[in-house]
Structure formats: C-alpha cells, structure tokens
Write a structure and sequence with these properties.
Length: 319
C-alpha cells in the first residue's frame, strides 16, 4: 500500500474517534506494523502539518483543529477510485458518452492524482468494465438544457414523441428529478396539462426550452410515493399484488433480485419460490414475467394471469 493511501487511512480513522487510539490498535486497523504507523504519523506532522497529538493513551487529532484539517488536494482510496471509475463508465455509457463533457474535467483531475500515485487511469480503467444492455438514447441532445432547468428549478416546454401511438405532443412541465433506470434516463416532472406527476424518457424529448417561472414543487413524500409505489418506471399507486411462483433454477436467481421495495418472498414446500409484488400499471411487470418463460407461473390476480397467457398465445401464433 502506498504512503498516500496510508495518510488517507490514518486520517479517516482518527477523524472517526473522539478518544485516543492505542498504537497497537492503530497498527491493526491500518494492517501494518507499529514502526510504519510511527513513520506515517511523523511524515504527516512534518510535511503536512497534521494536528496529530499523542500521549500515554495513544494518538488522536487536536480537537481544536480536527474539523478543519484536510489532506491537500482531492484524495481517494483505491476502493473509492474503482467505485468512481465504475460510476463514470456506467453513466458515460448512457449513450456513447453523452456525459463525457461533464466528466472530462473531473477525469483530468483524477488522471493527475493517479499519475502521482504511479497508477494511471488508463491502467486502472481496464480493470473496470460496464456491460450495458437495452440502453436507448439515439437523441440525448436535450440533456444539458433539461439538467439546467432541473438545477435552477425552472419550468420547461418541449415536444414529446410518444412511443405508444407514435404521436408528438406539446408538454409544459415542472421538473422534479432525473432518474437513471435500467441504463436509461427519465425526467420525473409535474405535468401542467395532466395535473399529475409523469415520467418522460429523455431521448423522446425534443426542442426543449426553459420558461423563466418557478416550478410547481411537489412534496418529497408525494414524489417518493409516486415514483416508488408503482412497478418499474410507471408512477402512481400500486393497488394490486402479483403472486408469482418460480421453479429452479430461476428461483435461485430471483431470490437475490429486488423487483419492488415492498416485495415479499418465501420458499414453498414444493421447492418453488413465491414472490409477491405490488403493481399498478402491469406493462413492465408483464415484460419481466415473460423473460422467465416456463420457469414462472402467475398465480394471481386473474387479470394478470390472463394478460400473460394472452401474450404467450399471441407469441406462439407467430411460430
């Protein structure tokens, strides 16, 4: 482990404590010997003016300077760097680097840090890879303007190209939040025409322009309920509960998956896994059920079971 990581590790440990920590305990937490700890403490005191004090009870930060002292520059542990590069790959992969400009300056700073630590971002980036499937977004030119309106809490007007009927509609909205869901970006906004919260796929937003009026703000509780209650990207209440039973091997995959924050699951005596999922609009739920084919059976409600059966029968007619 390089000394820069040691500095960061030591400062993190000392900042998390109010009482002194013994040398032996500090060495154990830093996974090194006592002599290394003493050397790191000495270097930080001499070269970085770190307010580290010691007495017979151990080491701690001077309480008068503990909150104000920071290591110079931007510091990351190895784990934090990998996490940051992972996030960068995932977000820049939304659509061929749509966020590349926004990340460029940050990436240059990270490059300098990694060069100083003799790592190099190109080398580390090869160890992190994000495989994105089903990512849409042939047109994300609206991102910058939508993001600006969201940050400044200004209203928006735009032309929205609906997928269900292939029609264009003029929309007037108050942006509430940006969602990154299954590799795609959505704008959650209060629709002034519909008088309710709606989700808009960012790649379907065309010719957006900002209105210099404050947004119609939606309460955090209402927003959380609207976004989190329904199934998938569809907002609104979830008055129904789907009862799904999965057989092996799909059951062992489903056991670790989260389909809904309020889902319930249990193993049955016949070896199947029963999953109960709240939903309102069944569109996305049906798609998730169908991808498991014969490994899943819809037990309830009858309307959902009938809808899945109809989709399967329609598929068979094509073969």
């Amino acid at each position: 482990m390089d000394k820069f990581h040691r500095y960061n590790d030591l400062l993190r440990i000392l900042k998390s404590r109010r009482l002194p920590i013994k040398l032996a305990d500090l060495a154990d937490k830093m996974e090194c010997d006592k002599a290394t700890v003493k050397r790191i403490v000495s270097e930080m005191r001499d070269f970085l003016d770190a307010p580290i004090v010691s007495n017979r009870n151990g080491y701690q930060l001077d309480t008068t300077q503990a909150n104000s002292f920071e290591l110079p520059g931007v510091w990351f542990s190895s784990g934090e760097l990998v996490a940051l590069l992972t996030m960068q790959q995932v977000l820049s992969g939304v659509r061929e680097g749509v966020l590349a400009d926004e990340f460029n300056e940050l990436r240059q700073r990270i490059d300098k840090l990694l060069v100083n630590r003799k790592i190099g971002s190109a080398h580390l980036a090869k160890k992190v890879r994000a495989l994105l499937h089903g990512v849409r977004g042939k047109n994300l030119s609206s991102f910058t303007l939508v993001a600006d309106a969201l940050a400044r809490e200004r209203q928006l007007r735009f032309d929205y190209h609906r997928r269900d009927n292939n029609q264009h509609e003029a929309r007037h909205v108050s942006p509430q939040q940006l969602l990154y869901y299954r590799g795609n970006l959505y704008l959650q906004a209060w629709c002034h025409e519909r008088k309710e919260l709606r989700s808009f796929a960012l790649e379907r937003i065309h010719q957006p322009h900002t209105i210099d009026d404050a947004i119609h703000a939606v309460a955090a509780e209402q927003l959380e309920h609207a976004v989190g209650a329904g199934y998938g990207i569809f907002s609104g209440p979830a008055p129904h509960t789907a009862v799904l039973r999965f057989k092996s091997p799909a059951a062992h995959w489903i056991e670790d998956e989260i389909w809904h924050p309020e889902q319930q699951q249990q193993w049955l005596d016949d070896g199947r896994l029963e999953l109960r999922v709240p939903f309102g609009n069944a569109t996305e739920l049906i798609m998730d059920i169908l991808r498991h084919g014969a490994d899943v059976e819809v037990m309830a409600p009858k309307s959902l079971r009938d809808a899945v059966r109809a989709r399967l029968q329609a598929s068979l007619l094509q073969y």
